[in-house]
Amino acid sequence: MSAALPTSSREWHLVARPHGWPTSEDFALRETAVAAPAEGRILVRNKFFSVDPYMRGRMNDVKSYTPPFKLDHPMDGGAVGEVIASNAEGFAVGDHVLHGLGWREIADVPAKHAVKVDPDLAPLSAYLGVLGMTGLTAYAGLFDVASFKEGDAVFVSGAAGAVGSQVGQLAKLKGASRVIGSAGSDEKVKLLIEEYGFDAAFNYKNGPVRDQLKEAAPDGIDVYFDNVGGDHLEAAIGALNVHGRATICGMIAQYNATEPTPGPRNMALIIGKRLRLQGMLVGDHADLQPKFVEEVAGWLTSGELKYRETTVEGIENGYDAFVGLLRGENTGKMIVSLV
Prior knowledge:
Blueprint: E1 8-14, E2 27-33, E3 41-50, H1 54-58, E4 79-86, E5 96-99, E6 106-110, E7 115-116, H2 133-145, E8 153-156, H3 162-173, E9 178-183, H4 186-194, E10 200-203, H5 209-216, E11 221-226, H6 230-239, E12 240-248, H7 269-272, E13 276-279, H8 289-302, E14 309-313, H9 318-326, E15 333-337
Helix pairs in contact: 2-3, 2-8, 5-6
């Protein structure tokens, strides 16, 4: 056990359920006491925590695949940090671990829910993104859910985000005939082509998605990786070739909607084209984790796979980081740094 433990920790609580866009009044940064870990638990000083689009859904009091955040309790999410006290076999002070109790400075973590990570293999923050849940989402969603095969033409929405940017690069590494991405700024479009190697990209704010996609993919697409929904999904259904596949990963376009959002108007095309549209949750693909880490770590080492992070400094800016993510202010993974 460590002797000089901190006596308090700051943590973000959800204090009201947002209606539409979250506001600062829905959250509170509160101080809580820190105690030595009970048997089977470890105390972790978080160095980085993740903010992700799926967290917006957990702020609603609705039944879903993940329970909603409780009011007046600390929120949670991916985090990586250093063990400062251990009462669990197999974990020592100084170990670095990945766990699910983010949004706070000090986490009291059940050891069975912590995974050791190697800071020499990759920067610690990478375990929240390119080597973490978002990376596995890209890997499983493209190769398993969408049944990608060499020669496929691939369209990715939200392509400058943590998942989308990795999907496009993985497709190129595995022999895609063409990779197209959409993003929300001309700067991000430039990044997709010049740094990530996309064959074409467009700013969805510059004109109808359908028209821009048709120009970028004149021969159609075989795979669509959906992070956005809405007009992007409708455009993709129109562009998909016969026996095309779509991975429905996220629908950030409607996360803050207060009214029901209309579905694609061209769904009859699914029949004639024999399309397959499949939703995905990364938790269903844990069996791919070892293969994913091995393959992706190799591409990172060789420099073939590139990634960006947008880092917001300080726990006090956790809310701003989350809302910035929903507004698309991030390039790559949005991370909150506590170091």
